[in-house]
Amino acid sequence: MKKIISTLAIALLVSGCKTSPTGRTQIALYSDQKMNEMGSASFEQMKKEQAIETDPSMNAYVKCIAEHLIAELPSNYANQPWEVVVFKEPSANAFALPGGKIGVHTGLLNVAKNQDQLAAVMGHEVGHVIAEHSNERVSQNSLLQFGLQASSTALQMGNVEYRDAIMQGLGLGAQYGVALPFGRTHESEADVIGLDLMAKAGFQPEGSVALWKNMEAASSGERRPEFMSTHPSPQSRIANLTSKLDEASRLKQAAWQSGKKPQCK
């Protein structure tokens, strides 16, 4: 049984190995078509359940930024249809889904004070899509479930004492040792991808740092320790983005020289 489990695990890992835009090895077990179907279905459900903002100027502003960012995506993403929806939701959030879907909450416009800051968030969210983070997350969850089930089977076969307690420990280890740090990796990677994307589109990359300073100021209550969070702390994000501003500024300058200078209002 152990040999069968090991063989299946290796086969899954080998067949699903890819490289992210930053050069990181990742596991993506699902096809682009399947992920697009899942993303589109989720987006349609959100549109049914959440109120949609119809203000023309607000929608034009958000879509203007989206269009500039989409124009800088790899051709397989830039050439697909994209749908951008502004949801009436007070939280300062945005998201992008496989299948060419972007959602922006109205509450984000209270924190992202200008086009550059909003482009930082939207670029980050689109970065999740082009880095196939949704695929990686779904694949990761599938492998975690496979591993826990395999461990349970092995413990049952071996008649191991305290099996339930051991399985609870394995589940806790999977959560804090794999799932949460993995989420922080995704967030940090999307920050970098989004920074490059907004700079190539001609947005001011300094807006990304200003955005996270705003986010930190707007947050309320005590923040959980970073090692127990799926997101890096604002301080970590600010430091990481600041370290990459010089290169991003060069990309922005090149964009301006080629006539790319967004004026979204």
UniProtKB/TrEMBL annotation:
A single GO molecular function term of this UniProt record: metal ion binding
Entry's Gene Ontology cellular component terms: membrane
Cofactor note: Binds 1 zinc ion per subunit.
Any single GO BP term: proteolysis involved in protein catabolic process
Cofactor field: Zn(2+)
Gene3D superfamilies registered for this protein in UniProt: Metalloproteases ('zincins'), catalytic domain (3.30.2010.10)
InterPro entries registered for this protein in UniProt: Mito/Outer_Membr_Metalloprot (IPR051156), Peptidase_M48 (IPR001915)
Domain Peptidase M48: 57-243
Keywords from the named record: Hydrolase, Metal-binding, Metalloprotease, Protease, Zinc
Protein family per UniProt: Belongs to the peptidase M48 family.
Matching PANTHER family: M48 FAMILY METALLOPEPTIDASE, METALLOENDOPEPTIDASE OMA1
Name of this chain's protein: Peptidase
Species whose genome carries this gene: Pseudoalteromonas aurantia
Lineage: Bacteria, Pseudomonadati, Pseudomonadota, Gammaproteobacteria, Alteromonadales
